[in-house]
From TrEMBL:
Keywords: Cell membrane, Membrane, Signal, Transmembrane, Transmembrane helix. This is Single Cache domain-containing protein. It is a multi-pass membrane protein. One of its GO terms (cellular component) is plasma membrane. It comes from Microvirga vignae. Residues 50-147 form the Single Cache domain. It holds the Pfam family sCache_2. It is found in: Cell membrane. InterPro entries: sCache_2.
Amino acid sequence: MLRPTMIGALALCAFAASAVVYAQTAQFGTAEEARALLDRAVASMKPDPANTIAQINKGEGGFKDRDLYVFCYADDKVVAHGNDPTRVGLPTKDLKDTTGKLYGEEMLRVAQEGKIAEVSYMFPRPGPDTTPVSKVALVTKVADHVCAVGYYKQD
């Protein structure tokens, strides 16, 4: 009698633990979700870049999901940023992480129309914690713009 009760209790604990792990990871976007968000942004940019950029900057249009957001460069500056509108207007060549990596220049260099490149750098997650963590940006070119969505690596 005690053995079936113990097995049931252990199974319940395992289920609860897996639910907690899922809930913790679901608060952050995945590489696949970042790619889907980038694909959505590209599809919107092609017919109407000005409207898409305006939506990204206003936080509208579904271009932000948890810690995933779209950002775009044009004319050597940030023109859209779905998480921090104060970054709009910053020169792309000056964008560097805490290690000194010039990730903005690298994104401009690797971006190609119809292809997705990856650029790794250190950047804080959205929210109050400003500690830089490992981030991978999925980058592509859409006409005269370079657009990206970054996801944060899970440790």
